[in-house]
Design goal:
Elements (H helix, E strand, L loop, with lengths): L1 H11 L8 H38 L6 H29 L7 H44 L2 H36 L4
Helix pairs in contact: 2-3, 2-5, 3-4, 4-5
């Protein structure tokens, strides 16, 4: 408990800033919230990878180069996304909250810039790569599945993608808003 109190005292006694107990608690809560959402996202992405790989094995898709390419693009995009999120978590944990306000602001600004880059470039590329992988699989599905089941997969994938994009958009907007609020104003 002394470490927390020491950290809190350092934060409150910084020159040029007037921190309150509630302000520091809110700061830690916001950072912890962002960290937890990143962890949850990684768990969901890992489960998706496991499902895709299980499906590959279940349908013996490893015998078809086209099937391997489609699943490979889907899994690859998720693996890249997980790697970036793990790196992002490492950067977030590297921010030293007990340093002076200028160092903290600089660290948080760098982290915020990295997250914007991730959300506005990497996430769309990952989604497009995932979708391309799925589209590559469609002829395989059409050739091996009944017309009704094929249409079900096609339409449910489109609906899922739209819902998923809205969910991702809201999460990104929320995270960037929190990060922007955390930035210390001059």
């Amino acid at each position: 408990m002394n470490n927390f109190e020491e950290l809190q005292n350092k934060w409150q006694n910084q020159s040029g800033m007037s921190a309150t107990d509630n302000g520091f608690e809110a700061l830690l809560k916001s950072v912890k919230s962002i960290e937890n959402k990143q962890k949850t996202g990684n768990i969901v992405l890992t489960i998706t990878i496991l499902i895709l790989l299980s499906f590959l094995i279940y349908v013996s898709g490893y015998n078809s180069n086209t099937f391997l390419l489609g699943i490979g693009l889907m899994v690859g995009s998720l693996v890249v996304r997980i790697a970036i999120e793990l790196y992002s978590l490492k950067k977030l944990r590297g921010i030293n909250f007990s340093k002076d306000s200028n160092t903290f602001k600089s660290d948080l600004t760098n982290y915020y810039s990295f997250r914007k880059y991730t959300h506005y470039l990497i996430t769309p590329l990952a989604l497009v790569t995932y979708a391309i992988g799925f589209v590559i699989l469609l002829p395989q599905f059409k050739a091996t599945l009944s017309q009704g089941f094929y249409l079900y997969i096609l339409f449910s994938a489109i609906v899922f993608l739209l819902i998923f994009c809205v969910f991702i958009y809201k999460q990104i907007k929320n995270e960037l808003s929190k990060l922007k609020q955390l930035q210390v104003q001059d």
